[in-house]
Amino acid sequence: MKYPGILNHDIARVGIEESRKLNLIVGGMVTDAIKTSLGPRGMEKIFIDILGEDTITKHGGAFFRKIDVHHPVAKAIIEGVNTVDTHVGDGTISAAILIGKLLQKSQELLKMGISPTIISKGYEKSLEFALDILDKIKKEESITNKKIMYQLASSCSAGKLMTSLVSEEISITNLIVEAVCSVTNFQKKEIDVDDIKIEEKTGNANNIQLIRGTIIDKTIDNSAMPRSIENAKILLLNEPLEIMRTKTDDQIEINSPEQMALFLNQETLDICSKIKKIVNSGANVVISRKGINSIAQEYLAKEGIISIRRVKINDLLWLEKSTGAKTCKNLEDIYKDELGFAKKVYEKNVGGDKMVFIEGCSNPKSVTILLRCNSKRYLDEFHRDTLNIIYVLRNFIENSFIVRGGGSTEAIIANKIIDLISTVEGREQIVIEKFAEALEEIPITLARNVGMDPIDTLTQLRSKYANSPKDILKWYGIDSDKRKVSEIFPYDVIETLVVKQQIIKTAVEVTNIIIRVDDIFMKDIIDNTHCHIDGTVHAHHDGGKAHNHFEQEGLEQRQMHHYY
Ligand SMILES: Nc1ncnc2c1ncn2[C@@H]1O[C@H](COP(=O)(O)OP(=O)(O)OP(=O)(O)O)[C@@H](O)[C@H]1O
Ligand SMILES: [Mg+2]
Q: What is the predicted pLDDT for the residue at 422?
């Protein structure tokens, strides 16, 4: 007699031993893929998506968002890296490397017979120690110190595509520091990174610009309007300057040509009276989210007023912050303080498209960075590089503590944590030791990526720390220019404390989640998910392809896919 099995026929069980081994191997594989990108001499990665479009990037966050993984462990790592990216916007490769190394060390510990529960407790204790050490070695700096900001920006952008393609005279880092300072409220230690508008246009990378105002990807409405206006008084509108179509079914009966003329005339008069109000308010630039019809445009042009219609809602918000204008509530009553100011409003040809520049705002609370580069795909990377720097500066403004880079912070923690091992009892001691070794992977990877020997680096680093006096804090790390282990000074490489904290916290959290998993049960994956003409998506349970109706519609069934 045949008994029914416990698991359904399409569920496979991987098994405890096998799953653990597999999980840890997968972790190592994912992080191996990105580790050559760490640091100022890190390599770029190319990712080609299903449409054949390629992405060139050196950012861990972007790379991990692009690659598509199947294995749940790889997914957990990627989610961890994404957490670092969304919280602090930097340190994603470091986090991935640390997760990979902690998983590798866990495998060694499991082989030694240490249980996953003890490993995860040991890692939690190590995290506590590491955060304590970071607290002791951090240094506070003034958030108004532009030199520190500049140094932070250059440390995080070292080796990134943007810094290598833009000539040094442009000083892209200075430009971004200026942008960030403009929109920061230093008293409240507040900054909203969205106040910096980033526009991208193809062209010469050396023409990257910071505009103390807003750029709108639109043209001036009418050729009769001036192309440029100095000392602009800007009116922002959220109501149409055109005849509105009624949505009701009401009918107007017109019986004679005179009545028709009267009707049309009345509509024109309405627009005319609105324009009179605009002229009387003193505004010479009108920017509207809604439409402005040709009659209104003609009247505005006659008065020497520039108009730009149908701008995006976000553009209005940026314009409010940059020019100091407030979107007009009622055209019948335009208040003086609703008007914004800019030294110049003009139309310019940028990369083959016309754009309107609203420039020279006094004390703008929103600015625009215009990124330029010859190729679209490099522009995307420029955008990521810019955001990377902006996030690092935001981290510093919100939490003004810094540590030094070049792997020195990780090396110090690894070194100091060993002294604390004796305060812990039991097998956790061995786990903490392994945690210290995992942290050393950051300076080692930096060294490997600049062409140094990893084993020599490790021994030199350890001996430098062993021979340095205990009461004086020395920051030994990797000097990427001279390719040697040496002391890192604040004018070399600095980083924000929050990034370092986030990297270590996330790495421990993700590793602990993964090592707690001890078995995998897997259903057969049906990967012919498809989309019907009505937009519904489904997969057939048996994996069959009974889809004649697709052929009739001339649509082809597609494999499971993702959009980017
Ligand atoms: N000039 C330098 N010399 C030595 N190390 C440096 C230098 N500049 C930066 N670093 C180090 O490089 C590491 C950062 O590299 P990178 O920015 O490529 O990776 P990440 O910050 O971990 O990831 P991502 O920036 O992609 O999110 C830090 O450890 C930093 O201390
Ligand atoms: Mg970085």
A: 86
Is 408 buried (19+), middle (13-18) or exposed (0-12) by CB count in 10 A? buried
The CATH number linked to 496 is 1.10.560.10
Q: What is the total count of domains within the chain? A: 3
- What would the pLDDT profile of 453-491 be if each residue is shown by its tens digit? 999 999 999 999 988 888 888 999 999 989 999 999 877
Q: If you ran DSSP here, which 8-state letter would residue 47 be given? A: E
The alpha carbon of 40 and the centre of ligand 2 are apart by a number of angstroms equal to 9
DSSP 139: E
Specify whether 92 is located in the same domain as 81: yes
Closest ligand to C-alpha of residue 90 is 1
Instruction: Tell whether 113 and 159 lie within a shared domain.
Output: no
**326 and 263 in one domain?**
yes
Residues contacting residue 201 through CB under 8 Å, at least 6 positions apart: 350, 351, 353, 355, 370, 371, 372, 379
Q: Are residues 182 and 152 in the same domain?
A: yes
Which residues in 299-450 belong to E strands, given as ranges? 306-308, 340-350, 353-359, 367-373, 401-404
Q: Is the pLDDT of residue 252 over 80?
A: no
The helix (H) or strand (E) run that includes residue 233 is: strand 228-237
pLDDT (tens digit, 9 = 90+) per residue, 227-244?
A: 999 999 999 998 888 876
CATH number of the domain enclosing 336? 3.50.7.10
Nearest ligand to the CA of 405 is 1
Which ligand 1 atom is the nearest neighbour of the CA of 478? 4
What is the distance in A from the centroid of ligand 2 to the CA of 157?
Answer: 7
Mean predicted confidence (pLDDT) in 25-31: 82
pTM flag (> 0.85):
yes
Residues 33 and 129 in one domain: yes
Residue 320: pLDDT above 70? yes
Q: What tokens does 506 get?
A: 């996330």
Q: Which domain holds residue 478?
A: 11-140+403-516
Give the pLDDT confidence score for residue 538 in this predicted structure: 64
Ligand 1: centre distance to CA 58 (Å): 11
Same domain, 427 and 499: yes
Which tokens sit at 238?
A: 């959220």
- DSSP conformational letter for 282: T
Please report whether residue 351 resides in a domain: no
Q: pLDDT band at residue 150, thresholds of 50, 70 and 90?
A: very high
Kindly give the pairing relationship between strand 530-531 and strand 214-216.
unpaired
Same domain? For 186 and 237 the reply is no
Q: Are residues 124 and 71 in the same domain?
A: yes
Ligand 1 neighbours (beta carbon < 6 A): 38-40, 42, 59-61, 90-94, 155-156, 158, 388, 405-407, 442, 446, 478, 480, 493, 495
Cβ-Cβ contacts under 8 Å for 171 (sequence gap 6 or more): none
Ligand 1 centre and the CA of 37: distance in Å? 9
Give the confidence band of 547 by pLDDT, cuts at 50, 70, 90.
low
CA dihedral (190, 193, 194, 197) positive or negative: positive
